[in-house]
Amino acid sequence: MTLVTARNLRKTYDAGEIQVEAIRGATFTIEPASFVSFVGPSGSGKSTLLNMIGCLDPPTGGTLTVAGQDVSLLDAKEAAKFRGKHIGFIFQDFNLIPVLTVFENIEYPLQMVQNWPAKERQGRVGKLLAAVGMQDQAHKYPNQISGGQKQRVAVARALVTQAELVLADEPTANLDRDTALRIITLMKEMRDEFGTTFIFSTHDPKIVRNAETVLSVEDGVVFTASDEGGSDV
Predict the structure, then answer these.
(1) Residue 181 CB-density burial (10 A; 0-12 exposed, 13-18 middle, 19+ buried)
(2) How far is CA 23 from the centre of its chain?
């Protein structure tokens, strides 16, 4: 079973008296445990696609199935519940909560979204801290760690709920080249270990070269640019 299936997917926004077609009839599939990049110029529709796949913004037309669920049929409450169970997010500006420690930032989705018992939360967070190499930073705050370490924490937080799908919007944009390559390697290792699918919206050629599937987005139209990525790490 495919993890994401879009059929004639459309998204239209009202801009005053005119309508803007952000996505125009996109059809594509994404397999489980894959590394996928949406590429294209700014304003092409990449972030709109991520927002629809992530159940943050409903489609205007067509169908969009994620993890067996037609998400176009979900209301806001159902979409939030579905997100919390199936989808993790990684942002270019990390989006860590400054008043929480590294441990608490990773724990947050388990406590606030999925309401895991404390003992189970601690065990799960400990496993993810070890997986991203941040055990010795667990009690530090975001302003006490580097940009690369913040992105490691963001990766762990995205995976802590055992999400099947992680959506990453320009996750290496604020990182230097060496740190970006280490984060890409880490995400591929997480994919291999946990079977998680990663979908990126990116301009970064380092991510594109490491993607197994590249979907090019131009003026709201999606087509396959490459079925096989190379390797930069």
Answers:
(1) middle
(2) 19
